[in-house]
């Protein structure tokens, strides 16, 4: 019992709010429909992004063989090794190019269609990409696989921009941080699922690898049939549609209570504040001395975030393990451990981030990544000198993933609202942030 409560036993009777009240009210804010919206949204969006990060690893040799067969059928001779490497690099990296395109499309589509309908339309990209990639082997056209990867990148760019916005706008501010962690956790689960289905006992065989890409349609279809039964974002209804009655009904549905006057008033207050804020251009932002440190912090953090090399780890895990001297039969199972480590690290980050703060997790995560990247460079160079060195390379890869997922992956995104709280709303600073 709190000491102040013992000192004033009549405080509750005189109308004081007990200290435990906010916690009880916060728990009530976790309505069933709010959880359904977060899980359905994340399963059809961030889960697919994570799945597509890892799904290309297991079938790599079979896809390369398919490229070679298609090339020989068309040109009468096997494909040149350098050309094959180029085609495979394009297949892997075009996913990121599609993500950039999708991110640039969000502003226009999101304003016209709203958050919910943007996610619904986005499922069309995922389903069409799944069909293209799953049918590429039967059609004998490797271009279908490359185009499908690009379209999945567009899907990922749109979903990772719109889903956090949707979840943020449908949830009370007391639980927005916790609900926002759903996106990161489902990315990790998607990575793990891609690795799991890629095992030889499941779909990671020469005859079944196209089904690995066909699975993409399942989460998209689940979201496509579920999301129409959920309301649109209340903030979108108020800001863009000026539909206060619809916004109140949406809040009532999501929060499971009749009195939503406090939530509606908060949104209206935000709207009034935003109307009085002057927007600035990117050039004005870079020239302003008042936000220079915020700009530097965001640019440096995002540069580290994008250039830290983790995507190379995901896309080329099997190749790295092969170079480390691991036998091909063991590689899929060792790769599976990376997805498990990422999921556990994301959960750990969610548990400690409010206690430790964003800055220590960012600095510690990037610092440990630099350390283990340095060690793995040495181990890969001297891997033939001792039988235990390849296993040290595996430990370094797992440590790099754990360092990133327990710190920079989540802390970077959550750092920016605090940095930008007093800046002009939508002042282009977020142009430097990833989707």
Care to describe what's here?
It is a single chain. The protein is an all-alpha fold and 435 residues long. Helices cover 74% and strands 0% of the residues. Helix 4 runs antiparallel to helix 7 and helix 6 crosses helix 10. The two termini are 45 Å apart.
Helix content: over 70%
The strand count comes to 0
β content, as a range? Answer: under 5%
Q: Could you tell me the radius of gyration in angstroms?
A: 24 Å
Quaternary assembly: single chain
Secondary-structure class: mainly alpha
Overall pLDDT: 79
The number of helical segments is: 21
Runs in which pLDDT lies below 50 for 5 or more consecutive residues are: 1-28, 424-432
The biggest sheet amounts to: none
Q: Which word captures the global form? A: globular
The H-and-E topology, N to C, reads as HHHHHHHHHHHHHHHHHHHHH
Beginning-to-end CA distance, first to last residue:
45 Å
Q: Quick gist of this model?
A:
With 435 residues, the chain is mainly alpha-helical.
What are its keywords?
single chain; 435 residues; mainly alpha; globular; disordered N terminus
Give the topology.
Elements: H1 3-7, H2 21-28, H3 32-43, H4 46-54, H5 60-75, H6 81-139, H7 142-170, H8 176-197, H9 209-214, H10 217-226, H11 234-239, H12 244-255, H13 261-275, H14 282-287, H15 292-307, H16 310-315, H17 317-323, H18 331-356, H19 358-381, H20 389-406, H21 408-419
Helix pairs in contact: 3-8, 4-7, 4-8, 5-6, 6-7, 6-10, 7-8, 8-18, 15-21, 17-18, 18-19, 18-20, 19-20, 19-21, 20-21
């Amino acid at each position: 019992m709190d000491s102040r409560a013992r000192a004033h036993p009549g405080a509750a009777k005189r109308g004081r709010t007990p200290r435990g009240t906010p916690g009880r009210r916060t728990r009530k804010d976790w309505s069933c429909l709010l959880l359904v919206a977060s899980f359905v949204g994340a399963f059809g969006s961030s889960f697919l992004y994570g799945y597509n990060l890892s799904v290309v690893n297991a079938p790599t040799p079979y896809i390369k063989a398919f490229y070679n067969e298609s090339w020989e059928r068309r040109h009468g001779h096997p494909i040149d090794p350098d050309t094959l490497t180029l085609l495979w690099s394009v297949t892997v990296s075009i996913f990121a190019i599609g993500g950039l395109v999708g991110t640039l499309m969000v502003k226009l589509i999101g304003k016209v269609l709203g958050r919910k309908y943007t996610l619904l339309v986005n499922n069309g990209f995922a389903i069409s990409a799944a069909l293209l990639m799953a049918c590429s082997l039967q059609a004998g056209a490797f271009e279908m696989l490359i185009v499908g990867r690009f379209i999945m990148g567009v899907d990922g760019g749109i979903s990772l921009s719109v889903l956090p916005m949707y979840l943020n706008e449908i949830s009370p501010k007391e639980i927005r941080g916790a609900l926002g962690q759903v996106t990161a956790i489902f990315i990790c689960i998607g990575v793990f699922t891609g690795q799991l289905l890629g095992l030889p006992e499941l779909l990671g065989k020469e005859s079944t690898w196209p089904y690995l890409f066909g699975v993409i349609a399942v989460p998209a279809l689940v979201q496509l049939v579920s999301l129409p039964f959920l309301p649109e974002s209340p903030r979108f209804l108020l800001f863009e549609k000026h539909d206060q009655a619809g916004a109140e009904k949406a809040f009532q549905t999501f929060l499971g209570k009749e009195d939503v006057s406090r939530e509606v008033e908060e949104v209206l207050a935000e709207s009034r504040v935003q109307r009085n804020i002057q927007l600035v251009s990117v050039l004005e932002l870079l020239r302003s001395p008042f936000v220079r440190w915020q700009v530097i912090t965001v640019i440096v953090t995002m540069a580290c975030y994008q250039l830290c090399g983790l995507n190379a780890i995901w896309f080329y895990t099997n190749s790295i393990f092969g170079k480390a001297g691991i036998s091909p039969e063991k590689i899929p199972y060792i790769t599976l451990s990376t997805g498990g480590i990422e999921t556990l690290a994301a959960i750990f980050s969610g548990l400690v981030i409010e206690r430790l703060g964003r800055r220590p997790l960012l600095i510690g995560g990037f610092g440990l990544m630099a350390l283990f990247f340095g060690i793995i460079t040495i181990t890969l160079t001297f891997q033939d000198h001792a039988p235990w060195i390849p296993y040290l390379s595996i430990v370094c890869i797992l440590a790099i993933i754990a360092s990133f997922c327990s710190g920079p992956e989540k802390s970077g995104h959550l750092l920016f609202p605090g940095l930008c709280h007093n800046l002009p709303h939508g002042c282009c600073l977020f142009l430097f942030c990833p989707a």
